[in-house]
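User: I've been trying to design a sequence by hand for this structure and keep getting stuck. Would you show me what you'd pick, starting by listing the structure so we're on the same page?

Assistant: Good idea, let's start from the same input. This is the structure you sent:
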């Protein structure tokens, strides 16, 4: 299979909303068990988003038109991502029972068990070396 070509280059994606996450914007999380996909959104799930493959199993979600990053998804989460990330795997063991009980997206509570997992996941995401979502870890 050939290399994936982006319609929108990663460098064109904007990260202004990232600075507001945890202070002014809520986080919504979801785990789709059959597809093994973990989703984190900085906007309500009703917003239409574009999936932008970034690295490995990680993709960014952005708003069409303005290219603002509004979330992250990790495909092959349990079977592919977690085995290579021991801290995320430990945190998932605590979070999975809570997420398994909910259908669709749950609004993340700052003091919730899932918050450390989301912070760890975002710390792993890099935007082509120029920006990191790791700064979110301190506000989640």
């Amino acid at each position: 299979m050939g290399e994936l070509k982006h319609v929108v280059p990663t460098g064109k994606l904007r990260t202004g909303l990232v600075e507001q996450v945890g202070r002014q914007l809520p986080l919504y999380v979801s785990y789709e068990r059959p597809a093994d996909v973990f989703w984190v959104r900085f906007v309500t799930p009703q917003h239409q988003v574009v999936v932008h493959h970034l690295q490995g199993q990680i993709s960014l979600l952005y708003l069409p038109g303005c290219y603002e990053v509004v979330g992250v998804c990790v495909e092959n989460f349990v079977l592919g991502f977690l085995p290579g990330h021991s801290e995320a795997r430990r945190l998932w063991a605590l979070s999975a029972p809570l997420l398994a009980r909910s259908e669709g997206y749950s609004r993340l509570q700052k003091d919730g068990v899932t918050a450390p997992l989301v912070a760890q996941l975002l710390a792993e995401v890099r935007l082509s070396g120029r920006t990191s979502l790791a700064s979110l870890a301190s506000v989640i």
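That's my pick for every position. To get oriented when you compare it with your attempt: Residues 15 and 131 are 8 Å apart (CA to CA). The radius of gyration is 14 Å.
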